[in-house]
Amino acid sequence: MISEEQIEGILKHLAELEATMAAGGSSGDFVRLSKEYAELAPVAKKAAAVRDMRAEIAELGAMVVDQASDDEMRTLATEEMAAARQSLPALEDELQIAMLPRDAADTKNAILEVRAGTGGDEAALFAADLLRMYQRYAEINGWKFEMMSLSASELGGIRDAVAEITGQGVFAKLKYESGVHRVQRVPETESQGRIHTSAATVAVLPEAEEIDIDINPSDLRIDTYRAQGAGGQHVNKTDSAIRITHLPSGIVVTQQDSKSQHKNRAKAMKVLRARLYDVERQMVDGARASARKEQVGSGDRSERIRTYNFPQGRVTDHRINLTLYKLEKMMSGEAVDEVVNALIAEHQANLLAELDDHG
User: Fold this and answer.
1) What is the pLDDT of residues 327-340, one digit of tens each?
2) pTM greater than 0.90
3) CA angle 285, 288, 289 (to 5 degrees)
């Protein structure tokens, strides 16, 4: 149960932020304070609602036991108090969820990587389907979806693709998509009508700013080469393709989609920063995860998280045993939120249980 002191502390902190912002200061401070204010304001709103509801229950309780009040007034107060007491737990739950520790990366944009896994041509076609699913999901949410690199397969599938998704709360929603996505369907090339199982791997990385991750230029080996198209033909006549190797980690990023070496280098650095930031986050999360069994949103690339069964028209998320018979709506991006919201709710429930354990 959230104490009166905690509620007063939240409201006091918001008032202090307002006063500091009104007093002015450096632009850097103002940006930092504005961000903190934007995060705290909705929490404070719920805290004020809980405080007011508790005060109302106390006032009504006083009226109920006040012998000076007439019977009609006491009956009315009793009914109102019962209704308020029924509403209060839901308000307190909302406040508790709002007060849960935030993932610092939730407000960031995301780098989405989709790769064909086991299953040959069919895996590449499924990877292309997943990429389209995320593109449509981004459109539904009003996010900007920009391809950074794409390696196509012969039959219209993709071997791997990297996209940048920018907008409000992108990583907070998409971070649960990291892992192995499995598909069960009859490939178009299958004459016997047999169901094949293949897979694609999705990685969603929070886009890292330079302040998030410090890269020492001496740790990088940068190679330039001539961009290759499908079938090995040269896309252009200059060495515009870039390969950046981060020597300490062994991470390699290649970029050749632009004819400009400068643009390819900037894109490659953006992906490299995101991957290094992700490695750092995984180490911190790994230390936390060893203290608890937290599977939802663990981001483990080798973990099979979801199965898309086309013959039965169903999607199953294995982390929370959720099955939806809405495969078409899933692939068009319309039902993605149903799965994501269920994963977020499960994650919040786990955090609340953890707080209770420590409480």
Assistant:
1) 999 999 999 999 99
2) no
3) 80
H-type helices in the chain, by residue range?
A: 4-23, 27-65, 71-98, 120-140, 170-174, 261-289, 327-331, 336-358
- Region of 29 (left: φ > 0; alpha: ψ -120 to 50; beta: rest) is alpha
Summarize pLDDT for 229-277 with one digit per residue, the tens: 554 444 555 667 888 889 888 889 888 877 888 888 888 888 888 888 8
Structure tokens at 156: 């219209």
CA angle 297, 300, 302 (to 5 degrees): 135
Residue 299, pLDDT > 60, answer: no
Q: For the sheet with 158-166, list strands across it.
A: 144-152, 158-166, 110-116, 196-206, 179-185, 304-309, 314-317, 322-324
Nearest-angstrom CA–CA distance, 299 and 301: 6
Which residues are CB-neighbours of 299 under 8 A, at least 6 positions away?
Answer: 175, 178, 179, 203, 204, 278, 282, 285
223 beta partners: 243
Q: Tell me the CA distances in angstroms from 238 to 78, 224, 235, 261, one per residue in order.
A: 82, 9, 9, 9
- 195 CB contacts (<8 Å, ≥6 apart)? 184, 185, 186, 311
Closest CA to 178 of 159, 150, 160, 201: 201
β-bridge mates for residue 196, sequence order: 185
Q: What pLDDT shows up at residue 28?
A: 66
Residue matched to tokens 């663990």: 298
Among the listed residues 79, 17, 7, the one whose alpha carbon sits nearest the alpha carbon of residue 43? 7
Q: Which tokens sit at 25?
A: 């200061």
Whole-angstrom distance, CA of residue 169 vs CA of residue 212: 18
CA-based nearest residue to 204, from 230, 167, 169, 165: 165
